[in-house]
Amino acid sequence: MRIGINRLMLAVAAALVAAAPAYAQRASLADRVGVLEQQVNNSQANTDMLNQLQQLRTEMQALQGTIEQLQHENEQLKQRNRDQYLDLDGRLNRLEGGAPAATGAEPVSAVPAAPATKPAAATGSERAPTVRGDASSLAAAGDERAAYNVAFDALKAGNYDYSAQLFQSFLELYPNAAYTPNALYWLGESYYATRNFKMAESEFNDLVARYPTHDKAAGGLLKLGLSQYGQGNAAQAQQTLEQVISRFPGSDAARTAQDRLQSIRLGQQLR
Questions:
Q1: Dist. CA 203–CA 227, nearest whole Å
Q2: Are 78 and 269 in contact (CB under 8 A)?
């Protein structure tokens, strides 16, 4: 009986030993399936990532196209603003008596210079000056007027350097005469026409300071502002042009000053 039990136990043990490789094989197969499933999952994740990446690329291309379109529209807007500025500047120059401004798409510098213009009213015979509150001084205009006409004729002919010399000589001979304010104004215009804005500013400033009620004072203050602008002093020029509007409301000088202020401000926006 005991021998039979031992034999049975040996048989079971043998069976277990025989079954062990099959179990190990099943465990190894499960591991391999798990690895394959993980690889499949990883492959799917990679595919999803690639799809997302492609979608992002498509969106970026669409955004790039939108940006390029906006840039193009912005350039067109800038060009229209430049054209409007040049057109306004040209019309203002013609009102001041100068040559039309350039019509090309030339960019606006950081500090645009005022145009060299021909004096606005230097055509024909100039009427006698009006000095409010001092009309009796006109009685002294004898040889003074003849000397003044010589300088004024040079100005009308466009000989600005020569007219400047003649007006300087006139002012030396007649520093406080009836035509002194006019001579100061046209001396400033002679300098302004040759783009000598610093000296033009000095003459216009002298005119406005000495003869604030003269009929040339409004135009002198206007040209004082434009001379300052020609030197690149935009802020100072705007202040002076605003003075023209406040001191001489409704005058031609005030209207021109208002137009020039708008032109200056538009030019600053286009920088």
A1: 10
A2: no
Residue 256 corresponds to which amino acid? T
The residues with which 131 forms a beta bridge, in sequence order, are 214
**pTM for this model (two decimals):** 0.55
Give the dihedral sign, CA 100/102/103/109. negative
For residues 136 and 124, give the distance between their C-alpha atoms in angstroms, rounded to a whole number.
Answer: 25
* Residue of 253, 234, 246, 210 lying closest to 95 (CA atoms): 253
Q: What are the tokens at 261?
A: 């202020």
The mean per-residue pLDDT over the stretch 157-184 comes to: 93
224-241: pLDDT as tens digits: 999 999 999 999 999 999
| pLDDT at site 164 | 95
Count Cα neighbours of 99 within 13 Å in the Cβ-side half-sphere: 6
128-133: long-range pairs with CB below 8 Å, 24+: 128/178, 129/178, 129/179, 129/181, 129/182, 129/214, 129/215, 129/216, 130/214, 130/215, 131/178, 131/181, 131/211, 131/213, 131/214, 131/215, 132/213, 132/214, 132/215, 133/213
Tokens of 224: 């004082």
Q: Which residues, 6 or more positions from 183, have their beta carbon under 8 angstroms from its beta carbon? A: 148, 151, 167, 170, 171, 174
Cα torsion through 184, 187, 188, 194, rounded to 10: 180
How many angstroms separate the CA atoms of 234 and 269, rounded?
13
Residue bearing the bigger pLDDT, 71 or 158: 158
